[in-house]
Design a protein that fits this description.
The chain contains eleven helices and 14 strands. The chain is α/β, with parallel strands linked by helices. The protein has a single domain, classed as Ribonuclease Z/Hydroxyacylglutathione hydrolase-like (Metallo-beta-lactamase, Chain A), CATH 3.60.15. Strand 2 and strand 3 form a beta hairpin.
Length: about 290
């Protein structure tokens, strides 16, 4: 009876967590008004964990129903501007609207220096907000940045977060992240080419969120752009290869570069190698 009750409690706890992905931004550096910069929320119970801070991240979080009090944990895959241009937004805005504890942000070496420069750039703004007439909760404006290495980078009662290295062109440090909750495992690729380290980190996960470009569309680009994308990103057939090896319950595409192809045509490229459930992500999609 005791064992059964214990298993019931574990099952009930997993149901209560309802761990899910919310795509806050699925875009690229290209200006698409329908797609904000890359940002993903992993939500488990009442906790939200933001992965990457593309432009528009705080307002998209509000559209998704996340409260500013939940925007206290963030993870950066790499320091490309399309993934970090929203960092000042996430660092500076929620303190005005009710965030009462510091933002803890984790990412590759260089994140701490970038954070220090951001806070210095807005030094006068912070001085007025914290020492002027505005009612202020000073801890809500604090930011603690953590340069991390591959391995476990964070743990709390809801999730364990593991960073793993991926190959992204000339970047010395680029990560993907694995979120392990009681009810679900979610892996987010960040920007990467076909990656064996990602395959190993993601095997058997419930949801794999992966970037993609169209192989057919790439053929219409100049030779210089073909070299660039091949070194920095993952073609749709290679995303299919990754998914075939990982075997996620759901493959979710974001940071899409269709290069003139339709979503269905890009999905067709993936289906050459993977026929499982695949979602062509849009901003504010919720995936369970």
């Amino acid at each position: 009876m005791g064992v059964r009750f214990g298993l019931f409690l574990i099952f009930a706890g997993a149901l209560a967590q309802d761990t899910r992905v919310i795509l806050l931004g699925t875009g690229t550096p290209n200006p698409d008004p329908e797609r904000m910069g890359p940002a993903v929320a992993v939500v488990s119970g009442d906790r939200a964990y933001i992965v990457d801070c593309g432009p528009g991240v705080v307002r998209r979080a509000a559209q998704a129903g996340l409260r500013v009090e939940q925007l206290t944990r963030a993870f950066v895959t790499h320091l490309h501007s399309d993934h970090t241009a929203g960092c000042p937004d996430l660092m500076l805005m929620p303190g005005n609207s009710g965030r009462a504890e510091p933002l803890e942000i984790y990412g590759p070496p260089g994140l701490r220096a970038m954070t220090a420069h951001i806070l210095e750039a807005w030094r006068e703004d912070l001085a007025i907000r914290l020492r002027g007439l505005q009612p202020a909760a000073p801890r809500g404006f604090e930011v603690n940045a953590h340069d991390v290495k591959p391995g476990e980078v964070y743990r709390d009662a809801r999730v364990r977060v593991v960073a793993f290295a991926v190959q992204h062109g000339e970047w010395k440090y680029a990560f993907g992240y694995r979120f392990e909750a009681l009810d679900k495992v979610i892996v987010i690729s960040g920007d990467t080419t076909y990656s064996k380290s990602l395959v190993e980190a993601a095997k058997g996960c419930d949801i794999l969120v992966h970037e993609v470009y169209s192989q057919k569309g790439l053929g219409r680009r100049t030779a210089e752009w073909q070299r660039y994308h091949s070194a920095y990103h993952t073609s749709a057939p290679d995303v299919g290869r990754v998914a075939a090896e990982v075997r996620p319950k759901k493959l979710v595409l974001y940071h899409q570069l269709p290069m003139g192809e339709t979503p269905e045509e890009l999905l067709g490229e993936i289906r050459r190698n993977f026929t499982g459930t695949t979602v062509y992500g849009n901003d504010l999609d919720v995936i369970r």
